[in-house]
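Reviewer 2 asked us to include a model.

Predict the structure of this chain.
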Amino acid sequence: MSIDQKPLDVQWLWDFMALADHQHFSRAADARYIAQPALSRHIRALEEWADVVLVDRNSHPVALTDAGHEFLHHTRAIVAHLEAARIKARAAHDQSNARLRFASTHSLSLSFFPGWLSRLESRLRLGQIQTLSDSYDDCEELMLQRKVQFLLCYGHAAVATKLDESAYPMHSLGKDELVPVCAPKAKGQAIYRIDGSDLVPLLEYSDSSMLGRILARTHQGKVRSIRAPTSVVFSAHNAYLLKTLALEGRGVAWLPRSLIEGELTLGQLVPATRAVHDWSEIEIRLYRQKAEMSPLAEKVWSAVQE
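Predicted model (structure tokens):
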């Protein structure tokens, strides 16, 4: 076996430094709280690993060889670096645990999360917060890999997810609804109508979008109400992007009411149907990790449930 392949126990380095400091096997063993024969075996194993004699056992007190002195110099530096690495790693771990980490789907990160967070901060001192905004699939993966403590997303009883199947704790924060909207004509009427007879361009959600999955399931029994012929002209997982395209008059998109409340009030977007049953109710959900989290994260979860 080559030197590079020989296993090295870090404890041997500590034993070697103790022997260099005390110059006596018994006193070094006492300092290391191990038996003298064990310390002797460790020093021998270290010499075998280094492939050189480090200790002159014929001298009294015990002395290091020239190779031993050179090795000791580097050993102290290595151990110091390891200790510093341990301290810094622990500090990074503590800081990471102290920081709240949320994953949020794009639309909720823009429409719901800021106001909800402000209300939460009025009750708790939250400190540093990290928010990762992405598609539902990517946010779900962040949860499964324990890279975030919470996931804010839309959900529906008809659409099961990996988090539901794995019994991740979930709390409902409220309701929203998907409204089919488009830009208006000059007189405020919808450019396109899904309950009409003219061709309607659709702005659709991609497969990675939870809103798209919800629509696919909840509209299975409602397709009859979309009497107009349709053609998909654009697809994206980001509801905000679909909103922008709808504002430009490019088609009809089912958008969360919370995301378009202002545009509906100003008449910049209008419903593309008179039938309210074409709207889909959705749930705003907060998932948490199954395992115990940091004390601050647990306080957040308790506050959410109150």
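The radius of gyration is 32 Å. Residues 98-174+284-305 form a domain with the D-Maltodextrin-Binding Protein; domain 2 fold (CATH 3.40.190.10). We have added this to the supplementary material.
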